[in-house]
Prior knowledge:
Layout: H1 2-10, H2 13-21, H3 26-32, H4 39-49, H5 53-61, H6 65-71, H7 75-103, H8 107-134
Organism: Nocardia camponoti
Protein name: DUF4281 domain-containing protein
InterPro entries: ABA4-like
Amino acid sequence: MSTLFDLAFYVTIPFWALMIFAPTWRWTRTVIGSPLVVLAPLAVWAVVAVPVLGAIWSLVTAPTLAALTTSIEDPAVLTALWAQIIAWDLFIGRWIYLDSRERGFSPLLMGPLLVGTILLSPVAVPIYFVLRAVLPVR
């Protein structure tokens, strides 16, 4: 299970690397332009989640803190949750990248924000909304 936990993030590294280190490269926009980039971590999610789908379904249809606390003690449930978070972060990062390119924001500004999105997307997204509000569109 540890390998799949790690794999959920490792399969996203090429996409993050393109957005952060090669944001103006023609192929970056082509690759990141496809929403299918999130399929890699979602494939890990599927492999892990299918055997524990009953537990996950119970958790999402009747969520409680106690149920979540108990559920994440199962490495498969926790790994599925991790893969889902990683896929969501990539989806958000993809949107930030594409939107910032359309607005002409500097890659030197966006690179650190995309790293922040990998680490703490709930902090990075509001920061990006502030940038959208104050920076001029080119």
